[in-house]
């Protein structure tokens, strides 16, 4: 059984400050807005707030392009405003986790300016390389380099275009796996590692409780920058870079230099096709020292290579991914549990039913999130059961990935018009979850001043779906999240119990149990839980496993009112999207 830790027992709430609450009325959410909502987080019952980047930034990627790791951007307020958020959360026993971006900086960071000028000992801090003779390679030379010269390899950026940009001042190409305004740092340089360690320490000294480490598995680049196969996504950059040969040296080095001796939550975002085996190296007790990672296994289901591509999926696909991670890390490392974040669509639209069964499917999926083994992450608005909005034109999108990818596909003739990809973008664009938080049914949903223009349009449903309405309705998604968070906090079995899936092959019912080991069970109220989810709009029969059938139990929570309160686990016919959590005596 896993050793106890506060971050295993916690529920994390992710705040995307730009879209959470606007304190100064300029249409962009900020830190004073967030501070004024601290009670909201406390009332929901979450233990940790994770803040996406609020550092000084030209905002090419909404703050994931950092120009100064030690300064708060004017958009969000001042360092004093940030400290007020920290204190407001801490006063309410909510810990604070900062998003940190170790893989790249902004091209406007002083480090990059010095590097391009070969000054200040920073000439090699980024991935600079000479171009190659365009006639000798199979890939195209972009317009901007010297004529006849192609970039060092064929990698494509994850946001569209080549992963290399020619810099006139330096006379070389620099690598950027994301936007050209996000040059990748060269982690093989010891001074780069030491500099990042210092920036991390700065925030620890400010009294924070952990870090979410952006694309941490990209830090180690393959020697010689080998080109990839053109049939692969991004010409192979997304396969060749993640989990590189020196990655564990870099991450464990960071842990030893910075995290050791602090009791932190550290979660590393690991993109690409991360295996459980590889993940274990980051998180197992003798590993790199991260608390957990975010992998992309489940959120990749039903998606194709192109951003807008939708593929059929089934519940057994989803179960297979979760089973692999639940079983694979059991007794070895800790899981993160998430469906939504600022890069992912709303889960009700993605894996639930955003039509007739919005409320029921939102709460059913919430039940899964809080009763698997791992730390649940709730993204702002998820607790309202928010659905994807409908963007009517490309002009309504703000996300650099969406806009650039579509413009590139239009220019290349891969698509004829926005209409070709409209539905797919409304399903998958990162902007689907970035619309303003819906506080009230009033002007601008209470997100900003009535006469301000929000930086991104509102979801069209805010008059029906908003915090005020749901807080006054005990049957709302919001109250169900609150109950789930409390239930998990009160029951060790839901945190530490071993997971066993009883219906791996069933296309509609997901029934599983959680069981505490003898030692942990001794002090616990309940040492076993049984959870049954009906993942669909049709009734379905739930047959508890023989080992549990007839056992004395309490129906601790259900998302369908009027569910009987059985005192034993018995077979039953579940209503559409019905979720039940039984605690066994
Ligand atoms: O995301 C990494 C990442 O790969 C996603 O942005 C990915 O492009 C997307 O999910 C696929 O649709 C992290 C941050 O979460 C993201 O917001 C940043 O843009 C990115 O890193 C670069 O810092």
TrEMBL record:
InterPro entries: GH (IPR017853), GH13_cat_dom (IPR006047), Glyco_hydro_b (IPR013780), O16G_dom_2 (IPR045857). Pfam families: Alpha-amylase. Gene3D superfamilies: Glycosidases, Golgi alpha-mannosidase II, Oligo-1,6-glucosidase, Domain 2. Keywords: Glycosidase, Hydrolase. GO terms for molecular function: alpha-1,4-glucosidase activity. NCBIfam families: PRK10933.1. This is Alpha-glucosidase. It comes from Halobaculum lipolyticum.
């Amino acid at each position: 059984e896993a050793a106890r830790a506060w971050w295993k027992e916690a529920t994390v709430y992710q705040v995307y400050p730009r879209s959470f609450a606007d304190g100064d009325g300029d249409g962009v959410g900020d830190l004073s807005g967030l501070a004024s909502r601290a009670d909201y987080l406390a009332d929901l019952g979450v233990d940790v707030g994770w803040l996406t980047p609020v550092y000084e930034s030209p905002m090419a990627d909404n703050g994931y392009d950092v120009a100064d790791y030690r300064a708060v951007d004017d958009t969000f307020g001042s360092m004093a405003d940030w400290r007020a958020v920290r204190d407001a959360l801490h006063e309410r026993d909510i810990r604070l986790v900062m998003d940190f971006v170790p893989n790249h900086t902004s091209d406007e960071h002083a480090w990059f300016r010095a590097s391009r000028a070969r000054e200040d000992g920073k000439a090699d801090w980024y991935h600079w390389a000479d171009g190659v003779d365009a006639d000798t390679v199979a890939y195209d030379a972009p317009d901007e380099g010297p004529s006849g010269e192609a970039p060092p390899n064929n990698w494509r950026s994850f946001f569209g275009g080549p992963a290399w940009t020619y810099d006139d001042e330096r006379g070389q190409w620099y690598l950027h796996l994301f936007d050209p305004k996000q040059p990748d740092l060269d982690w093989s340089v010891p001074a780069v590692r030491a500099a990042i360690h210092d920036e991390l320490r700065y925030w620890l000294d400010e009294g924070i409780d952990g870090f979410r480490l952006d694309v941490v598995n990209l830090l180690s680049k393959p020697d010689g920058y080998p080109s990839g196969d053109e049939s692969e996504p991004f010409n192979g950059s997304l396969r060749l870079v993640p989990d590189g040969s020196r990655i564990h040296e870099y991450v464990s080095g960071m842990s030893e230099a910075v995290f050791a001796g602090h009791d932190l939550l550290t979660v590393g975002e690991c993109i690409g096709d991360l295996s459980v085996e590889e993940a274990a190296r980051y998180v197992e007790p003798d590993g790199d020292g991260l608390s957990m990672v975010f992998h992309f296994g489940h959120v990749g289901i039903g998606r194709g290579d192109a951003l807008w591509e939708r593929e059929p999926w089934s519940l057994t696909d989803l179960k297979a991914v979760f089973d692999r991670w639940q079983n694979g890390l059991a007794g070895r490392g800790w899981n993160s549990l998430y469906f939504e974040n600022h890069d992912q669509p709303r889960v009700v639209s993605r894996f639930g039913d955003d039509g007739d069964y919005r409320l029921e499917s939102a709460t059913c999926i919430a039940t899964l999130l809080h009763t698997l083994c791992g730390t649940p992450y709730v993204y702002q608005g998820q607790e309202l059961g928010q659905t994807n909005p409908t963007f009517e034109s490309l002009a309504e999108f703000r996300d650099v990935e969406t806009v650039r990818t579509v413009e590139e596909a239009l220019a290349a003739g891969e698509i004829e018009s926005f209409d070709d990809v409209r539905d797919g973008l409304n399903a998958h664009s990162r902007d689907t979850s970035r619309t303003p938080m819906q506080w009230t049914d009033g002007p601008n949903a209470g997100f900003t001043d009535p006469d301000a223009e929000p930086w991104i349009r509102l979801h069209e449903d805010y008059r029906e779906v908003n915090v005020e309405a749901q807080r006054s309705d005990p049957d709302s998604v919001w109250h169900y999240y609150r109950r789930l968070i409390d239930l998990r906090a009160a029951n060790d079995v839901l945190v530490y119990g071993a997971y066993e899936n009883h219906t791996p092959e069933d296309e509609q019912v997901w029934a599983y149990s959680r069981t505490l080991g003898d030692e942990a069970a001794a002090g616990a109220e309940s040492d076993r839980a049984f959870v049954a989810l009906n993942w669909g709009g049709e009734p379905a029969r739930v047959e508890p496993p023989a080992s549990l059938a007839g056992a004395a139990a309490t129906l601790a929570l259900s998302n369908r009112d009027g569910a009987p309160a059985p005192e034993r686990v018995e077979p039953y016919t579940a209503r559409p999207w019905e979720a039940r959590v039984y605690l066994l005596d």
